[in-house]
Amino acid sequence: MPTISDPIVPNGAPLPKGERIRCGQCGTAEYVILDSIEALTPPAAEFVDVGYSCLECGNSYAHAATFQDVAAILNQRGTVSGVLQFGGEYVHCGEPMKISGTGFHSLYAPMSTEDPTVDLLDVYLATKVLRCRCGFQMELPS
Ligand SMILES: [Zn+2]
Ligand SMILES: [Zn+2]
């Protein structure tokens, strides 16, 4: 396992698949903003196609990268671990999760429907259920 301070290997030794997410010009991923995350074709558990750009110098990049690397970039912005969130997409196991259903959750369970204020309190939260092929599911407000 590479250490956290894993330096960029000088003489190549590229990863079997995927490259480190970083700005080649700035030599850091610090200013990198992900533009897209897509499943590889065919999907690979550990790799995704990413597009990103560097806010510092404006360069953009696109290549396959490890799920871990993508997570590291996203996690520096405080994303829930294990699930990558990008735009409207949630990625688990290296591919976007699919919507498997929708539902409604009542935030309140009014005891009486006679009360005129119930309408105000009776808030239902529309949700959608996202499912990963591994069986992982999460529910989100739609
Ligand atoms: Zn840069
Ligand atoms: Zn999964």
SSE order in H/E notation? Answer: EEEHEEEEHEE
Beta-strand content estimate: 35-45%
Number of domains: 2
Through-space gap between termini:
39 Å
Which parts are unreliable, with pLDDT below 50 for 5 consecutive residues or more? 6-15, 118-122
Indicate the radius of gyration in whole angstroms. Answer: 20 Å
Major sheet, described briefly?
A: 3 strands, antiparallel
The order of strands across the largest sheet is 1-2-3
Approximate helicity band:
under 10%
Shape summary: elongated
Number of strands: 9
Short description:
The strands form 3 sheets. Strands 1-2-3 form a 3-stranded antiparallel β-sheet. A 3-stranded antiparallel β-sheet has the order 4-5-6. It contains 2 helices and 9 strands. The chain is mainly β and 142 residues long.
Which SSEs are present, and which pair or pack?
Elements (H helix, E strand, L loop, with lengths): L31 E8 L7 E8 L5 E7 H9 L8 E3 L2 E4 L2 E2 L1 E9 L11 H4 L2 E8 L5 E5 L1
The structure holds zinc ion (2 copies).
Overview of the molecule:
A hairpin with a 2-residue loop joins β4 and β5. Strands 1-2-3 form a three-stranded antiparallel β-sheet. Strands 4-5-6 form a three-stranded antiparallel β-sheet. The protein has helices at residues 67-75, 118-121; strands at 32-39, 47-54, 60-66, 84-86, 89-92, 95-96, 98-106, 124-131, 137-141. The longest helix has 9 residues, at 67-75. By secondary structure, it is mainly beta. The relative contact order is 0.14. The protein has two domains: 1-89, no CATH class; 97-142, no CATH class. Mean pLDDT is 73; it is low at 6-15 and 118-122. The protein contains two helices and nine strands; from the N terminus they run βββαββββαββ. One zinc ion binds next to loops. The site of one zinc ion has 5 residues, from loops.
